[in-house]
What we know:
Blueprint (H helix, E strand, L loop, with lengths): L1 H26 L10 H18 L11 H24 L2 H13 L5 E3 L6 E3 H16 L2 H15 L8 H10 L1 H31 L5 H44 L1
Antiparallel strand pairs: 1-2
Helix pairs in contact: 1-2, 1-3, 2-6, 3-9, 4-5, 4-8, 5-9, 6-9, 8-9
Organism: Sphingomonas guangdongensis
InterPro entries: FliR, T3SS_IM_R
Pfam families: Bac_export_1 (PF01311)
Amino acid sequence: MGFGLAIEPQLWALLFTMVRVGAAFIAAPVFGAVAVPLPVRITLSGAIGILAMNAQNITAPSEVFALTTFVAVAGEALVGLAIGFVLQIAFAAPLVASELIGTSMGIGFAQAIDPVNGASSPAIGQFLSILLTLLFLSVDGHLILVDLIVRSYDAFPPGNWVAPERLRAIAFFGGYAFLAGLLLALPVGFLLLCLNLVVGMLSRSAPALNLFAVGLPASLAVGVVALIAAMPAMGDYMMVIVHEVLEMTAKLVFG
Length: 255
């Protein structure tokens, strides 16, 4: 009987801590991927929850079934979702860039199932998303995310909600996905725009010219060559995206 009473508060505190950690992992791009099995997510949430309990002073609500407890759990879930959603915004930039590039190249119809979110996305978008994920992992972004989740208990103790100005900052940061996607697609998109101008002038000078027989293969060839040539610059800008989103996540946590 004594052993059961001693372990029950610790188990409840762990489950309460796992709410914030699990919510952040659900919204985060790497941990929340569809390819990651649910038992793995639960195990990771439990492990990080134990780490947070040992590193921070986390006090769980005294009563399990109470209105204040449900409000506190909702607040913990909101904090975790806000942390993970900021990262998800930046990882939407390759999808925006792929839509611009794929439409200009004429392969916008080339869709495939994205293993990250389980939805259909352009093939170029999958390539850019995987590249951004590898760069994110190469700079230990996943470890920084775990560190921010653990340290978030200092800035947002259990029972405190995210301030409205920080939620407004997240909403304004949503425009960064379109800005980063446009800048990411700018080198390839500029060359394809120049090609379309050339093809348009050819069509005006030679109306009998079949644009579908000339323009589509030329757009595809120029797009592939432009992607190969612009890949170093795109990789450098992806590193900028990773640093920007990690900085924004730190600002969300620490203000």
